[in-house]
Amino acid sequence: xxxxxxxxxxxxxxxxxxxxxxxxxxxxxxxxxxxxxxxxxxxxxxxxxxxxxxxxxxxxxxxxxxxxxxxxxxxxxxxxxxxxxxxxxxxxxxxxxxxxxxxxxxxxxxxxxxxxxxxxxxxxxxxxxxxxxxxxxxxxxxxxxxxxxxxxxxxxxxxxxxxxxxxxxxxxxxxxxxxxxxxxxxxxxxxxxxxxxxxxxxxxxxxxxxxxxxxxxxxxxxxxxxxxxxxxxxxxxxxxxxxxxxxxxxxxxxxxxxxxxxxxxxxxxxxxxxxxxxxxxxxxxxxxxxxxxxxxxxxxxxxxxxxxxxxxxxxxxxxxxxxxxxxxxxxxxxxxx
Length: 337
Ligand code: HPA
Ligand code: ZN
Description:
The protein has an eight-stranded parallel beta sheet with strand order 1-2-3-4-5-6-7-8. Helix content is 52%, strand content 15%. The protein is an alpha/beta fold. It contains 17 helices and eight strands. The radius of gyration is 19 Å and the shape is globular. It has a single domain (4-336), classed as Metal-dependent hydrolases (TIM Barrel). The site of hypoxanthine has 10 residues, from loops. Residues 12-332 form the Adenosine deaminase domain. Belongs to the metallo-dependent hydrolases superfamily. Adenosine and AMP deaminases family. Adenine deaminase type 2 subfamily. This is Adenine deaminase. Keywords: Cytoplasm, Hydrolase, Metal-binding, Nucleotide metabolism, Nucleus, Zinc. It is found in: Cytoplasm; Nucleus.
């Protein structure tokens, strides 16, 4: 291992932007399809005949591969296996805390009960806590290309499992699906005591407008992606003042947009914004935490101290108890000495 790689590998890390359905590696898709006696999804079966892998170049074309692959997830054991595979991988990269997105509507809309989804994911987290000493929690995302009524019904369905879910988010196709469409859903989520984050994907048609909505109307605690704030100094100030974390995903950016936004990430970090680096959908974009940090280090002039600062930001904006935060920051500090 190069000294850069071992520096990154050794850092205690938090991952705050990770879609559990985005960790379905092709081998696991095949295994689950075979176990459930269902056909291998097209995107996977065509993988063998080409060497170039998945083909997508923007968010919409990525989602067109992403959702059909989920057909292999049917039982709580399937959800458990997917989540435990991710947690094991993250642990091997020294991720000590993970906040994991899941998309219940992508499953309930296929007839898989909410209870099946959450019980499998929850069991994997319990096992990772016990056997790997990892800390992890779940963030329930609403699909923004579906109706606010369906989102609200999903919120209601989740109430019996409230203690298993730390907060709620908003993902899927942002085109013509502004955050304000879900204002009532997020207001209710807040009333229920959930923390709130929303995707503001990179270079969308109305990126700035949507970022304003999540800050002013939805009143988010974090923003997923969100680097387009660099275009507006007043937004940078607002995000800084409110200490809102941005969960950036360089490898994912490099696949769904023209570039990986390394300069923007660095500019915001240097301006004092609580920027973090994460993996998003690592099986699809082919990069877990270490690969994302490595890309940032290889392709910008970021210093080692600033890489440590990215991790400090992650622990600072993580949705964890103050006791845990102190412990994790202590681990980071003793490593960075
Ligand atoms: N953006 C929006 N929806 C998503 C993403 C993303 O990066 N990953 C999985 N669903
Ligand atoms: Zn995402």
